Automatic annotation (TrEMBL):
Localization per record: Cytoplasm
Pfam families per the UniProt record, alphabetical: PRC_RimM (PF24986), RimM (PF01782)
Keyword rRNA processing: yes
Assigned GO CC terms: cytoplasm; ribosome
Species of provenance: Actinomyces johnsonii F0510
Keywords assigned: Chaperone, Cytoplasm, Ribosome biogenesis, rRNA processing
Self-association state and partner proteins as the record states: Binds ribosomal protein uS19.
Domain (RimM N-terminal) ranges: 5-85
Domain Ribosome maturation factor RimM PRC barrel, residue spans: 104-171
Protein name per its UniProtKB record: Ribosome maturation factor RimM
Gene Ontology terms for molecular function: ribosome binding
Lineage start: Bacteria, Bacillati, Actinomycetota, Actinomycetes, Actinomycetales
Length: 182
């Protein structure tokens, strides 16, 4: 199965280096110079890493196929992938328990509140510093970021294709009363 190693961010400097949003616990091993990685979208790659560095807080990489700033900027938003059966990379969890979830398992699930009311569809999983966020697109077309924590995401049923949410009032537009208004 293909999993996301990193997402390419903005170009950095003039010689084709880009900022990376890392999604693996082993960037130095998985993105070592000389490594060729598939991409999403596929038309952007595969890309061969020519340089990888960490500045103490952020990761940067350069690729053989993008030797200047213009070419590097064209790669913004491209996902670097890895073929793996290992569930430790790119997995996240709403609790500290044993359950882990991949982005591709969650995207497309129908979001229901605890009473069974349809809230929308999960369209993304955004990584975060404190916790990840499920992005739910409502039937009206609004995107709502729900913190991916057990209190707000009490159940995920992959077989039924649903995720149960217990959002605070006001999180979803037009549903529930905002906390300040109570």
């Amino acid at each position: 199965m293909l999993l996301t190693l990193a997402v390419i961010g903005s170009a950095h400097a003039l010689k084709g280096e880009v900022r990376l949003e890392i999604r693996t616990d082993d960037p130095e091993g998985r993105l070592a110079p000389g490594t060729t990685v598939p991409t999403e979208p596929a038309q952007a790659g595969p890309l061969t890493v020519s340089r990888l560095r960490f500045d103490g807080s952020r990761w940067f990489a350069a690729f053989e196929q993008a030797r200047d700033r213009t070419a590097a900027e064209a790669l913004r938003g491209v996902r670097l992938l890895v073929e793996t059966d290992d569930v430790s990379d790119d997995a996240t969890s709403p609790t500290e328990g044993d359950e882990s979830w991949y982005r591709h398992e969650l995207v497309g699930l129908h979001a229901l509140n605890v009473t069974g009311e349809a809230l929308g569809e999960v369209t993304d999983l955004e990584p975060g510093v404190a916790q990840d966020r499920l992005v739910v697109t409502t039937p009206e077309g609004d995107d709502v970021a729900v913190p991916f924590v057990a209190a707000l995401v009490p159940a995920i049923d992959l077989e039924a294709g649903t995720v149960t949410l217990d959002p605070p009032g006001g999180l979803f537009p037009g549903r529930g009363e905002a906390e300040e208004a109570r």
